[in-house]
Design goal:
The chain has 161 residues and is mostly helical. It has eight helices and no strands.
Amino acid sequence: MTVSEFNACVDEHSDGLYRFILKNIKDEDKARDVVQDAYEKMWKKVDDIQAGKAKSYLFTTAYHCMIDGIRKYKREQPFDIENDDIPHDSNHYTGAKEIVSKAVQQLPAVQRSVLMLRDYEGYSYKEISEITSLTEAKVKVYIYRARMFLKNYIGSPEKII
């Protein structure tokens, strides 16, 4: 990969990569740090990466940096139990986007990541399996479970519309 191809990769993929990380960790500063770490690692291996594989390498690296950051954060923070994850029925509209966003945040990190890669970023199952180092079958199972959780959490669409 040449320097101009690296710069083109930064221009093309930085926004999508940032949105993907931000959707998963909900902290703008940490998301910027993860994206920066991914580009730094990519720059260190710029001679070994083919230009056609740059996007896949970038998302894979960012995904692993994000998971490492989540694990580090969990070790540093005490575990608090909250009852906010229990779905409740309300008679007033709180906004479909907010409800879906809250439901997605209730998912385990792996399910949330594969769901975001598939439904928000539009990756194929094969690309997701390469990014996350999971088998295609495992990716399909995690996406199915995530969608079923969201369906049960949200309930019928008529309740939120």
